[in-house]
């Protein structure tokens, strides 16, 4: 549900066109929940989820570190008031000149997942610490990650050995169990893989110290999700199971779970129509779609809660689409979305759980539509 602060803001600040409103009080509550759930793990907020300066400054003041995917994000984190020692360059696909730029800014912690990436880091940032990302299956995630990032655990052994041989500091292992991960036990197998790599490298005289357990922590959309405390308990039990009394340093990288439920998008119904007299579903067109920030409706993976002034009345399944002249700009069609029969042109709708991965996905000028406006309160 939209917080009262967001409701009051929208009531007193009429905004033309779609907009996202983020409540910093909710972000703070989420940060404190993660800190309580995993008190011994350093929090590295995934900047890509929502890089609004107000969010970054708040999290910096609370003690968060930052997971950055580019030099631009590194500069955003630095501008928020943290030192480079609180930043990780977590993208495994980096131009060598970007590695050098990050090194010049003082960043020393880099992700890799292959020997070729290690060699780039060794040339551009020869004193760096590196951690190797390993593949996971992502089962249980509503937005699974592909094989684009990471390598098999057996290969990670050679990647980190090569890093050591080139003079880098081979530091640890990372993984990501898939975004919007609803299975609290999803981290167990990946932590076991990390232990396998730790032991293999110890036999080669390399003592790893870090397990970066990535993100994946969900936000609530249409279904309830486990609490941060539930994830923290399951993850800690897995760490004890696999590492015993020799627990490594650990990192978590919440993004969606940090800001998703802090944001609400206000949008407007542009058109309601049918394709034929016998069409079973109405088509409801909004002034925001996939190109305006709702890219995660791709394959209907993320289904956002939608609120209207007609809630409580009779509903019928609708195809929900965006306003652009691209046939791919359809949000929900395979599984039509139940919306009130009374919904009509000009009605305002609130799309909840949209604090993450919306403004950063919004296009700049497709069809001439403005980027998604954002307000942080």
Automatic annotation (TrEMBL):
Residues 26-259 form the Orn/DAP/Arg decarboxylase 2 N-terminal domain. The active site is at residue 325. One of its GO terms (cellular component) is cytoplasm. It is an enzyme of class 4 (lyase). Pathway: Amine and polyamine biosynthesis; putrescine biosynthesis via L-ornithine pathway; putrescine from L-ornithine: step 1/1. Pfam families: Orn_Arg_deC_N. This is ornithine decarboxylase. Belongs to the Orn/Lys/Arg decarboxylase class-II family. Its EC number is 4.1.1.17. The keyword Isomerase does not apply. GO terms for molecular function: ornithine decarboxylase activity. Keywords: Lyase, Pyridoxal phosphate. InterPro entries: Ala_racemase/Decarboxylase_C, De-COase2_CS, De-COase2_N, De-COase2_pyr-phos_BS, Orn/DAP/Arg_de-COase, Orn_de-COase, PLP-binding_barrel. Its cofactor is pyridoxal 5'-phosphate. The modification N6-(pyridoxal phosphate)lysine is found at residue 48. GO terms for biological process: putrescine biosynthetic process from arginine, via ornithine. It catalyses: L-ornithine + H(+) = putrescine + CO2.
């Amino acid at each position: 549900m939209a917080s009262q602060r967001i409701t009051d803001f929208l009531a007193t600040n009429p905004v033309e066109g779609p907009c996202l409103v983020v409540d910093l009080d909710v972000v703070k509550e989420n940060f404190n929940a993660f800190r309580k759930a995993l008190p011994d793990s350093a929090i590295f907020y995934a900047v890509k989820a929502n890089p609004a300066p107000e969010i970054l400054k708040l999290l910096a003041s609370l003690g968060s570190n930052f997971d950055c995917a580019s030099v631009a994000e590194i500069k955003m984190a630095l501008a928020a008031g943290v030192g480079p020692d609180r930043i990780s360059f977590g993208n495994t696909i980096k131009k060598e000149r970007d590695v050098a730029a990050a090194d010049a800014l003082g960043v020393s912690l880099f992700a890799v997942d292959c020997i070729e990436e290690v060699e780039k880091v060794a040339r551009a940032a020869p004193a760096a610490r590196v951690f190797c990302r390993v593949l996971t299956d992502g089962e249980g995630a509503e937005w699974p990650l592909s094989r684009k990032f990471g390598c098999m655990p057996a290969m990670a052994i050679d990647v980190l050995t090569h890093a050591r041989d080139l003079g880098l500091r081979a530091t640890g292992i990372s993984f990501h169990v898939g975004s919007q991960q609803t299975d609290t036990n999803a981290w167990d197998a990946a932590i076991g893989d990390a232990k396998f790599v730790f032991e293999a490298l110890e036999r080669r005289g390399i003592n790893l110290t870090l397990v970066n357990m990535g993100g994946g922590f969900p936000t609530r959309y249409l279904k309830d999700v486990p609490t941060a405390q539930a994830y923290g308990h399951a993850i800690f039990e897995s760490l004890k199971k696999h590492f015993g009394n020799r627990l490594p340093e650990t990192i978590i990288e919440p993004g969606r779970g940090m800001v998703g439920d802090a944001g609400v998008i206000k949008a407007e119904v542009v058109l309601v129509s049918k394709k034929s007299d016998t069409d079973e579903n109405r088509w409801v067109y909004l002034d925001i779609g996939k190109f305006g920030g709702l890219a995660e409706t791709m394959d209907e993976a993320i289904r956002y809660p939608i609120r209207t002034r007609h809630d409580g009345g009779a509903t019928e399944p609708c195809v929900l689409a965006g306003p652009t002249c691209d046939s791919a700009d359809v949000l929900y069609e395979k599984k039509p979305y139940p919306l009130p029969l009374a919904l009509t042109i000009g009605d305002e709708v609130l799309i909840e759980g949209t604090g993450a991965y919306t403004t950063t996905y919004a296009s700049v000028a497709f069809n001439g539509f403005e980027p998604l406006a954002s307000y942080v309160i």
